[in-house]
Amino acid sequence: MTSNSLSGSWSSEPVGRVAAPLREQVTSSLRQAILDFSLQPGQRLVERELIERLGVSRTTIREAIRELAAEGIVTVVPQKGAIVTAPSLADATDLYEVRASLESLVVQRFVERATDEQVARLVATVEEFAGVTTSTTSIRDVLKAKDRFYAVLIEGARSYALQQLLESIQARVQVLRATSMSEPGRPLEVVNELRGIVRAAAARDAELASRLCAAHVRKASITALAHLRAEAGV
Prior knowledge:
Order of helices and strands: HEHHEEHHHHHHH
Number of domains: 2
CATH class of the largest domain: Mainly Alpha
Shape: globular
Distance between the termini: 21 Å
Number of helices: 10
Mean pLDDT: 90
Structural class: mainly alpha
Strand content: under 5%
Low-confidence stretches: none
CATH topology of the largest domain: Four Helix Bundle (Hemerythrin (Met), subunit A)
């Protein structure tokens, strides 16, 4: 059961007053806490607690929450305030279809634009991910290792527009990614799927790499959507 209190779930420090503007620091801090599952889907974001924990004004907190709501990872419920977004079954279904199309396009651009050195780094991230999946059961660590694959992928794709879109989708399905990766045997399947993608990328076969990527995302969606259907009693 998700706790409504921040004190038992999120260890944070007051944000600083230098570098990035204060609102950006607060937004970044909250976003990272959500992506790390320190703040979990359905958890209330109580203004008073956020003000005390981060040492900022109510206005700054509200501006940060407004920005995160625009990103889709926070939901503002009338009369109740803000909560960490928990995707509905319908939303999750659509998000995974968008993600499959988007990631396959990113892979296509990577194959077309990446240097040989970037291809080699992409291969290395998959082997690093394989090592992490066999050395830990921490889903947070596993997802971070897979995120390094995406970091190289988007770098080689050389498209800021695609980067923005992909980061937004990834953030909105983060809890579903964790659900899928928690399925027994799924991490090994992911390793094999990613190896197939990078083999095609190394061979500069954009069509095959793109097709394998879409299949990978749709395979991941099966477990995540099944979990949501079970929760909804569908």
